Structures are given as C-alpha cells and as structure tokens.
Batch of 2 targets.
Target 1
Amino acid sequence: MALIETQQLTKRYGETVLALNGLDLVVEPGITGLVGANGAGKSTLIKILLGLLEPTSGDATVLGYDIAREGPVLRQYVGYMPEHDCLPGDVSATEFVAHMAQINGLPRAAARERTAETLRHVGLFEERYREMRGYSTGMKQRVKLAQALVHDPRVLFLDEPTNGLDPAGRDEMLDLVRRTGAEFGISIIMASHLLGEIERVCEYLVVIDGGHLLQQGPLGDFTAAMGVLAVEVEGEAAVLAANLRERGLRVEVEGRMVLVALEGDERAFDLIRDSCADLGFGLVRLERRRQNLEDLFRPTGRGTAHAAS
Amino acid sequence: MPPAEQRTGSIYDLGYRRYDGLRLGRQHAVLSLYFYTLRGAFGIGRRASSKIIPIVITVIAFLPALIQLGVAAIVSDEVDVIRPENYFGFVQVPVALFCAAIAPEITGRDMRQRTLSLYFSRALERRDYALAKLAAFATALMVLTLAPQALLLVGNGLASKDLADYVGDNWKDMPRTIISGVGIAAAMGAVALAIAAQTARRAYATIAVVAWFLVTWPISGILVTEVGGAGRAAALLSPFDFVYGATLWVFDVEPDRDSVQDLAEIPLWAYGAAVAAYAAAGTALVIRRFGRIAA
C-alpha cells in the first residue's frame, strides 16, 4: 500500500492563485524529501493531507485512509511539525506534549510516559519542566518535533524542520530526523527548499513546482543523472561556454570555470575536447564536481537568472 | 543522567520506543481538550499570575453565600436565607466579569500561538474542538453559578434545626436552581465565546465582550422605561435583563415593581426562550468560526 496517493489534487486560493494544480502523486513508505521553491505548493500539499486545508478538488489517501472522510482516524497515526511557531509560552514542555499526546488518543498514563521518553529522544532534559517562553529556538524546534512524535505516528510530516536553527542545531536536527526515520521505521515527509538538507536525510525525492509534480524517484537516480563537470581553460570562459551551448550542452559560467551538466551520457567529454581544440584553448583542468542536488536544479531554476547576471 | 557539561547541545539516544498501546481516538481527544481547557480557565497548571483573576472572580461569586453562612453561624438561627433567584441576580456580575476576562483566553490563546494547526492535525474535527472549548467554558461558569448555591444549601441545611426538614422544604428549588444556573452559563458563555473567538487579540476580545454586556444594558433600560411600546422588546437585548427574566420565569416569581422585566410586560417565558436562542446562536457562531479559521 502506498503511503500517500493523490489524484488530481487541486487547491485554489481565491480567483488567481493556484497552489496545487491537478497533482497526481504516489509516495511509498520511507524518508521522502519534498522539494520545491518557496511557493511551489509544499506546505499546501502537507496541510491538505493533514486535513488543515480543504482541497478545491481531487482526492487523496494517506496510509490508505481517505483524507476527507476518515480524518480523525487517520490523524491518530500522523505527526506534524509545522514551519511556524506553535508552542504556548506559559506551559512547560512536559505539560504541553502530554496534552498533545492525549489529543491524539493516548490514555493519560501512556501520554505521560511517552512524553518523558520522547523529550529525552529529542534531547530535552531538566528544561522540560520550565515554561516554554524561555526556550531557545533550538529547544523550541525540539519540542515541536517531540509533539509530532509523542504518539508514535506511522508517518511524520516535517515542514522546514531546520527553520531558524544555527549550523550546529541544523546538523543535530537533521541527524535526529534521519535516525527517527531510519531506526524506528517511521515514514517521513520532509519539506524543504534547501536541497543540501534533503540530500542528507532522504531516500526518495519528490520535486514539485508551480503546484504540480516535476520529478520523483529515489535519491540515487537524481545524483547519478546530475553530474557536473568543471572545466578550466587558458582563454575566455565565456567564449568556451557559448561554443559549448551551440553544441547543445547545458552550461554555466562560474568565475574562471565553465560548469557543464552531464546528462547521463559521456558525450560532454568529447564535445569539450572538440570545443577546446577548435577554439585553440589549452585545457587546464577537467574535474567532476561533488554531485549535489543544487547543481541539478541550478540550470532550470535560479541558474538562469544567475547566468544572465 | 549524563554529566552536565556534555548535555548542552547534544542529542542523546536513550531509546525511542514504538508504542503499541491503546489509541482511544476522537472521543478521548475531545474529553482531554475539555478538561485541559477547564483547568486552564482557572489557571490550573499555569503560572501563578494566570490564577489571580479567575480565582478572585470566583471568590466574589461565593461572597454572599459565605457572608450569609458566617452571619448565620455567629448570630442566631433566625437569619433571612438568600433566595436562589436573588442569588442569580447577584451572580450575573461575576459571571460577566469571568466572560470578559477568561473567554478571550479560551479561544485566543490557540489562535495567537498558532497551536490550532496542532489540534486540527490530530484526532479530532474542528467542530469537536469548538464544542469542547464551549463545554469547558460553560462548565467553568457553572462553577460560579451553581457551586455557591450548593454551598448555601448544604450550609443552611446543617445550620437548621432539622436537616431533613430543611431539605424537605427546599428540594423543590433544586431543579430550578440547576436549570437557571445552567441557562445563565450557557447563554452568557456561548455568546461571550462567540464574540471573543472573532479575534486573536486579547485586549480587543475583552473589550468586545465587555461592550456586549455594558452597551446593551443602558440601551435596554432606556428603550424599556423611556420609549416603551415596541421598544420594550429591548429587554431581550441586554444579557443581564434577559437572563434575570429567565430566572424569574424558572422560579415562577413576579418581577419587582418598576424593574425592567416588570415594565417590559413581556411574558416571562420569552426570556427563557431568549436564553435558549442566545445559547444556540453563540454555539453556532463558535462552530462556524473554528470551521473556517485558517490553521
């Protein structure tokens, strides 16, 4: 059974804004990264699946439950860590998380016990008895994760979980998310606009843009197909770039380097060689860049603006 | 427990475990929210400063009962016992204060702190959330309307020469007292919550609730006593007036001469109907509000 299935899911805000545009998606259990630029529809999709928003049209199931008809039953097995602040300042983490566990159907005693365990799991110790208004951003993010985990969900929706964290806190949060998914078998949907984070945590990738599915698959497929070759020549980088573009390659100039997208085949190597020979440029360096997701998306997204500037 | 210097900024794996126990679902979720809200209404489980206002108002509601019992204990046994309907006439004021001070907290907290999205992504529906909040707030108000009278009944009974006699003489008041106390709490509570739920800002909500009580009151008074005619229906506008009218109806007591209820010349049952209508309208508005609010 698929973890999430959507059919023609559409969300329209008012007359003009189309946040989701007939989205058809099947997500299998595992740790899945939900990627897209700000405004691509990531949060909207998550909120619809949680029942926080009603879709304008279309259907969806999560864990096999219909989101429209079986919301309360489904949501017993779902955890949600929103992007925004959501913690009351005048209660302690213990009190709040235990309350949230009960709202998810856990009996009182079990809720207390699970609260203590979960807060330990996210790394909150004596502070948990203090009012949350005094917490740092890092501690608040941990409580937000704890309230999403306390009832042992089968699927966890994380919306930008590293929001507002410093680099060290970011590393810890990502590690925590990865371990929660990998070691305890909880399926995770993690939305982020930071591809580097997705890459560190996720096994699968769903890329949405403008409210519909752009690409989807195991992370490995993406990284294999997205090599980038950095070329340094004795000569004008821009001239070489123009020449390579004429030969049909996706190219970008970065300082003295020319970045060439390797699109699955090795054709680019020959074309670069031919190009340098024709232009009479000396080839100084030809190296494969560390393959990361930013490189894949740069030519289509930010990259165009980048190259033009 | 790890040593203190290691603890800062590191995450320990002390064993997250899976949970295979009971999941009690929606009904349990609603009950939990009800009790949590009820406790919160009196500041229980919150910092000391959150307790001051609800407790002071509650004490005010108890004052007449305490004074009467105190006097009865010190002086002789021949003390005028406060009639239940008169007690309701008094207790409307602390109930209104409680509405103005606490209703904005009941609804506004979760909006302000954006906790709504955590509730609505859990095992309940928006309507359940609204009803749990309403029920908890009405229950808190019933503590003000009913508990002092219960204390009075028990206290006077114990102070009387014959407890069985006293109960025998007064038992007929009990259902009337309960109906009246529940009606006041439901009508004032539901409307106050419906007003307060329109904004997350606490100050605005308080002012709006106060305005409902204080602006309608003189309007009703002027229209009934000065204008007369069709203006007399304004007695159903002011919460103090229609709630007291309903109490008179429940206890089958004639209004005092020249009181609003006397001058309005509306049949007393109409006040009872007004209490029911206000409670229903307030409830519907609260459900509607939380059905639509963005979370």
Target 2
Amino acid sequence: MKVIWKLFLSTVKTFYRDKMTFFFTLIFPFTLVIIFGFVFGVGSSGEESKLSVGVLSSDNRLYDVVNSIEGVDARDFDSTESIRQAILQGKIDAGVIYNSEEMRLMLNFTTMQRDPLSRMLGDTITDRILKSDIKIDKIIDLKLTSIDPGRTVTTDLGYMIPGVVALTIFNGGMFSMISLFGDYRKRGILKRFGVTPLRPYQFILGMISGRFVVTISSATLVLMLSQLIFKVNFNINWLLYLISVSTSILGMMAFGILLSEIFTEPAVASEMGSLFMTVMMFFSGIYFPLEFLPGYLRKIGSILPLAYVAQSIRIATGVETGSSIFVLTVSLIMTMVFSVLVFVSGSKAFRSD
Amino acid sequence: MKRVLRLSNYLFKSLVRDGSNLFWLLAFPCILLVIMMLIFSPLYEPKNITFNLTLISYGGTFSGIIERVFNEVSSGENRIFQLEKFPGSGENLEKGLERLKDKKTDLVLEIPEDFDARMLNWFMMKNMGITPSAPTINVYSLKHQAASQSAYVIVKNIFQKLELEFLKGMGYQMEIIPVKTEIVGTEDTFSYIDFIYPGMVIFTVFMTGLFGIGVDMTWLKEKGIMRRINVTGLANSEFIISYIISRFYLIILQIALITIIAKFIFKTNVNPFAPAFILYTLLTILCLSSLGFFIAAISKTTNSANAISQVLNFPLQFLGGLYFPLINVPWVIRWIVIINPITYLTSGIRDSLGIMKSPYPDIVTLLVPVFWTVFFLFFTVKRFGKEEF
Amino acid sequence: MSNFILEVEDLKRYYGQVKAIDGVNFKVKQGSVFTLLGPNGAGKTTTIEIIEGLRIPDSGKIRFLGKEVSKIGREEKAYIGVSLQETNLIPYLTVRETLDMFKNIFERSLDADEVLKMVSLEDKSSTYIKNLSGGQKQRLVIGLAMINDPLILFLDEPTTGLDPQARRNTWDILLDLKRNGKTIILTTHYMEEAEILSDWVCIMDLGKIIKEGDPHSLIRDLGKESLIEVELDVNSVMLEELNNSGLDPVYDERHKRLLLKTNDILSTIDLLLRLSRENALQIKDVTIRQPNLEDVFLSLTGKSLREE
C-alpha cells in the first residue's frame, strides 16, 4: 500500500512537469472557455443581446417598424455609407434601406456567423411594413415558450461549459496515459519497475490513481472557475457528477492506452492524440452545433465518446435533463473498456521485448 | 551565396524528415482546413437541412389550412421539416414536450382547441371594423439548441407568409417586397472557403513561426549546433539566412498544399496569384517568422521556447480573427485582439483578396504587422548579432 | 615561421567576478599533441573556446601561424578543425549528408569518403544521426573536425561519456592522426588519455597553468619510484608520523585516500601496518602502483583531478 501511495504522489508531481498533459488538461480547455465565453458568450447576465439595426434617419416610419420588432434595436444614421461603415466596424449588427420597391438588408459578418438565420431579418421587416400599411398588427399570435432542457436555467455558455469539462477529462485521461505508457516504456522506466518486486497492478494502480486524481481536480477546477467568472447557474448532482467524471476519466485513459499500444512511438501517439482531440472538439457538438451538418457527419458525432461524456456531465450539472440510467450506462461502458484495456496492456508493458 | 543555399537544402531536408514537423506543419493545417469546412460551411449555406417538427392540432377549418401548409413544406425533396402530427390533447402536448427535451424533435407547435373559433371570431369582428386580439398558437423551443431556434425562425417566417395569404383573401393588396441581403465587406459570391482559406494560410505560417522556427532554433542553440557551425567560420548571418531560406521552402510548400485543397477540393473563388495577396502573404511570412526568431532569441532552453509558443498559440490564433472576425468583444480580451499582429494580417490578407474589407484603416492594417516585425527583428539581431554564443 | 603553430600570451577572460582564465601562456609545436589537463572549472574550455574563436579574450596575445591576431576570426577558422565538448548534430540528416553539409561550408576540404574511412564509419554513411551510438557519433564529430583538412585540430574532451571500448577506438583514430603529423590541441580530465596521446601537457587549475612539460618528465619530476595508495580514515597523529618519515603523505579527505611516495615499498607497508594498529585504524584497501599524471596533479594542488 505504501508503495502505491509513493507512486501516486510521484505521478501527481510529474503531472505539472509533463507539459503536454498539463497544458491540454488545464490550460487549453480553460483558455477556450475564456475566449469563447467572451467572444460568443452573452456575458454573465444571461440576457440574449439585442440586434442593433441601422436605419436612415430620414426614414421615420422604418425606424418605428424596426424598433417594434422584439429583440431589435433601431439606430439612426445620416447616410447609407455611414451605416455600411458602422456595420463593417462591428458597431451595429445590420442595416436596412427601404425605397418602397426593394428592401436592402446589410449584415455584419460576425452577426451572421453567430446567428446564420439573422439573414431572415429582412423578411420580418418587410412583413411588418406590409401589415403596418393596413394597420393590422397580426392575425395569428405565435406565442413562444423557450424550454430549459435542464433542471436549471442557464445561458448558452453555461450549457457549453460541461462540454469543456468533458474535453478536460478527455485530454487529461488520454494524454496522461500516452505519456505514462508510451514515454515510460520508451525510456525503459516500465521495464525498470518490471525488475523490481513491485507487482504490475501496484505500479499501474499507483500511476493511474495519481493522474486520476489530478484529472478529476482539473475538471472540477475548470467547472468552478467558469462558474465563478461567468456566474453560470449549475444545479450539480454531485453523486452523478463524480460517477460520470471518474468513469469517463477511466474510459479516456483507456483511449490513451489504446493509442500508445497502436502507435508505439510516443511522439506519434501524442500527435494522434492531438488529432483525435481536434476531431472530437469539433464533431462532438461541444462548441459548435452539429444540427446543420449533413447526416453522415452527424453520425460521426454520434460515435464519438466525447459526445456521450459531455451529455453525461450536462445531465449531472443539471443543464440538461436525462435519466441517470443514461449516465450510469455510459459510466459502465467506460469502466468496462478501461478494465479490459488496462488488464491487457498493463501486463504487456512489463514484459520485456 | 552558393554555400548558403546548399546549407539551406540540408536544413530543409532535416526539417521535413522529422515526422513530428511533417504532422504539425504540413498535415495538421490541411486536416484543420477540411474540418473547418465540414463544420462551418453548412452554417453559411443552410441547404438541405431538415428540422424535426411536432404538430399538435385539434382539427378544424383554420387548423386544417395550417396543417396543409406544414404538410407541403414537409414533403418532397427540398422539404424543410420532418413532421409528426398528434391529435390535440393535454397528454399529447406533454408527450411532445418530453420529446423536445429528449431532442427527438426540434420544435413543438400546438394549435389550441379554441383556435378555430377565435380565428372565425377575428375575421367576423374585422369585417365589422373592430380589430380584436389575435388568436394564439403555442410554439415550444428548446434553449441552447441551434436547431430549435432555427426551426422557430422558419416557422415564424411561414406564419408571416400565411398571414399575408389570409390578408390577400380578405381583399387587401399585398405586394411582397423583395429583399436583397448583403454581408457587408464581403463579395456577393460569399462562401466560407473564400473566408477561411486566407485564415489557414496565416495559420500555417504561424505554426512554422512558433514551432518550426521558435522552438527549432532554440533547440539548435541549446544543443550547441549553432556553436559548432560558428567554429567553421561561417558567419552567424550566413547561417541565419540559410535557415530562413529553408523555412521559406517549407512555407511555400505549406501554402501550396492549403491552396491546392482550397482550390481543387473546395473550389474557392479567390485568385491566389493576386499580387496584393502575394505581397500580404510575404508580410505575413516576414512578421510571423520574426516572431519565431524572437522566441528563439528570448528563450534559453527548448522547453521554455515550447512553453512560450504554446502560451502564444491559442490566444493569438483565436483572437486574431482567423476563424471568426472579432469586433465588439469585451475589453477583457479585446486588448489581445488589438495588439495581436495576426488580427491585422488576417484583415489585410482578406482585404487583399477582395473577400472582406478590413475594418481598420489601410495604414493601420499595414503598419501594425510592420511594427511588430521591426520589433521582433531588433531583438533577434541584438541577440544573434553577438559574436559569442 | 617559427616552430610554433600557435602561441598564447597572458590570456585573460573574466565573467564578472569570476576569473575563468587569468593569464594563460603556452606554445603549441607544429605536429605535436598538446593537452590541457585539469578538473572541471579549471578554465580549459574557456581557453580552448578562445583559440577556437568562440569567445573573445579580455586581454592577451594570440599568434596563429606566426601571425599576431586579436582573436580567431573567420580567416583563421578555415585552418582549424573543432570538436566541441558536447556536440549534437541534426538528427534527421545522414552521416554522409552531415559531412557534406560541413564540407560545403569550407573552400578547402577533404573527400567525405576519405573522412568516413579515417573514422571508420564507411558502413554508416546513410544512417540518420539519431540512430548512431555514442561512440559512432563521437567518431563522426572528429571526422567533421577533419573535413576541412585543418592545420590544427581542437578536441575538447573527445572521450567524455564514452564506454572504454569506444574510448579506445577514438584513441586509435587520434594516434593515427598524430602519426600523420597533425597538430592536435586536446583537453581532457582523463590522465590515461593525456599520457597516451600527448607530447606536451599543461596542467591547469583555477584559471592558470600551474605546470607544463612532456608527460614523462612531469611524472619523473615527482622523483619517487612507487606510490602506495591506502584507503583509510587517517588521524592527525598518524599523518604526522608519516610526514616525519619523509613519505610525503597527501590525504584526500573526500575520498578517504592516503597517498604515499616511496622507494622502499616493503618497509613503508610495514610502517603503515604498525601505525594503523597503534592508532586503531582499519585499512580498507592498499594499491601499489607507478605514479601517473593524476599524482602530478594531486601533488601540485592537493586535490583529485576527477570529481567522482
């Protein structure tokens, strides 16, 4: 037991020296939270920002029509050119010019990128103009109710953060195993331990438990820091959280072990790790919606483990409803994959070749 | 000069034989370009997307019209919705909302039981010259789901068109006003590949600057290879010129690869041989390579060069507007955007291709990268100009 | 032109308060193997780096090929070949390419094949540097120093870190070069190496040359025939007795080693045994041997050459 404890401590310490793992487990996800939080986030208030739309000051009627649309703020400008400039510099989101025959909608690129359907703003405005001509506001009242998917009301950013935690887990689990199994094997450290009376399971337990604790702390740290900075509402079911996070770490460790088994050169294994990370980051629907992708690409998303880990953690943090059965099933699969792989490669790693 | 060129050949050879360089500097940017295209281009040209819509209706004349309209847009090849209909009941609404939360459907539309009666009432009152309150249709969307929000915008649009039809039926003259949409600063033929291609050109040069020069040069310095070459009597300046030439070969190869993929796989409209674009690319190469030399000048060990490069990598990349323009971001991060040379390089290079006008004045777009280049080179020359290592 | 290919006079180089070298003088005869011997930090590397042109002296004169120069510049560098203390090469080039790369820098150069043969790496010519063993790499480094057919060859600790076998291989190459009349300037902290290879040895300590001469006369100057090395925890009483007996005891506190010089081995051993019994000290090990350069250094400075 003492041996395992010592190994545990030393792996905790080496985590901070193992730059690649440290970077991808803690610094990278957190940088992404900060950047995406501030760039795309709606800030801490949770309010969706209003679209600001430039209108010629000479066109009073258009100004009123635009202002009457919910979620839109009209701003007046002297000339078409000044509207264009303001849009280009990002001071306003869009501009409209109406000359009774045609409606010209000018959109800011970032606005369109954030909300591709802002293109439909033109249709909404012309519709209002037509109706205001005959003084009818509306015939049918569409009453929108936005349902929170989880137990708690949160912002888009709050919904994204559990995904970032999942990424932390993925990186922490995968890269630490690549470095432990790959690097240590290459440098003969595994073999060195193999000739000591230490039993393989003791060694592996010591190594893995160290990285395990570090990863679980990193993940929770990312969660807490994001909550602190962006004042996100979570309703964390700690039991479910711990179960899903810890089993996911095991599952992701298994992935790392698998990579270091396939790519015996540690540099190659860690490059493959980065490649998988990139693919998972984009195709697991953490940062970017997948709904607009063609079907075959969405299928890729549905086979990536990160998507399931992210969903489990969303459920555990209360931003998405889902049964604990889902979380537990994911957990069980992760644990099983992990056990099998560790058993197979663990005993293999000690054998000399 | 001949020996400088020959030395650069060896330096280039050793660079591309290293699998790690091949991956990070050549393969990875190409893979990233493909991924970005797969993920983002459908966002800008939203074609062939079907949303799942749940319609709950109690039946009736007006409800029937609405159902028919939705049936129509939910059939055929270019259908917008995958429609499922349930007869109206509180139970079915509950079921629909459950399906919404489980993401089995993107939007739930409930036509209430009294809708037909209220519709009839509305028309009668209107005929009598009174404008009554409009009958309600309930729409339920799911937060944080882009698909759900998009489906709502489309449903809203359909109802606008439907209302116009009703009004026409009531004898109003309704000429639909045509809308011309323009994304300011971009060409009319905007496509995502045109936007991302120059960004990836800068990305790939940036990678070479950070890792192919910054880290690599520090390694040569740390391992005493520069000293070894120095004792042959080759001047430091000659060695650095060979080194720059070898990196230039690599950058040309990188840009060629990215360009081939952009041009032949994703069919970009831009002309990669436009003189202004080539000039801006050269400025990019100059600026980001000198950043690399600067890193090598200030770091003692390969480890610290690696750390500096990693720290710079993502913030400069994401906050340089490579993937999305950054205007109106909060001050917490805006200062990075403002001091970041990549911001101006990206704006300038897109402007030079005529894809998107730079939001900054031309002189700023040009001078900020030049300033950084001079700054980086000053330090580099100060460090490597010394005779001793 | 004088007989000396390189002369150095009152060379100084300080790093702040640290006097790395403090007035070094020596002359190197053409065709000889000249060795700077000393412990780590004695100033060997600074000295050799100055005459390789990597560092500039604070003061002092250098005569290179009979011509006085303020430093070793680009012109002079064409005539020297260098193997640095720790040489790394570009991992993804082959042996052949590395030689060609360096060959291309010089105007005057040997054929790469010739050099490969000289350092017996013919069969490794298309191997990547990263796949070479330590000894092979070191041989290549010496080969690289030879590529411009230099008049002087600088070898800064050419065998440090090599296993005995690889070290002997390197010595063979160097002895070959010596036979062919090459001038070699060597730094080392291996006495054996200095003894086998050198014609002239300068012993350095604390930035100064404290003794020089050919290795045999340096050893002979110690005077006594044999040395007795004893491993024990000596005390002052015993040390004084030994001193009084004219045995010139030198005690290395750190390694608990006592060195005695004598012409009469048997009676000295007798004395030793008696004294250790009287002082209740236990002798752990005794070695009797001929003196070597290490002993020269030890008798000059009172410390051991190697920091083990």
